[in-house]
């Protein structure tokens, strides 16, 4: 039986929300094997003096649970 695990992350970017989401997936990929999907949950930003200074994306990444377990 295939089981999928989901973890929630926050990615950040100085440029845009797309890069913020991509950064979250890129960093997760360093420690999570076989990421199969991503869901964007929320987009926010930090504002200073009326200007967006940092974009943030709350994302969930999905990956399979290994079949062989102890």
TrEMBL record:
<dbReference type="InterPro" id="IPR036694">
    <property type="entry name" value="Dodecin-like_sf"/>
</dbReference>
<dbReference type="Pfam" id="PF07311">
    <property type="entry name" value="Dodecin"/>
</dbReference>
<dbReference type="InterPro" id="IPR009923">
    <property type="entry name" value="Dodecin"/>
</dbReference>
<protein>
    <recommendedName>
        <fullName>Dodecin domain-containing protein</fullName>
    </recommendedName>
</protein>
<dbReference type="InterPro" id="IPR025543">
    <property type="entry name" value="Dodecin-like"/>
</dbReference>
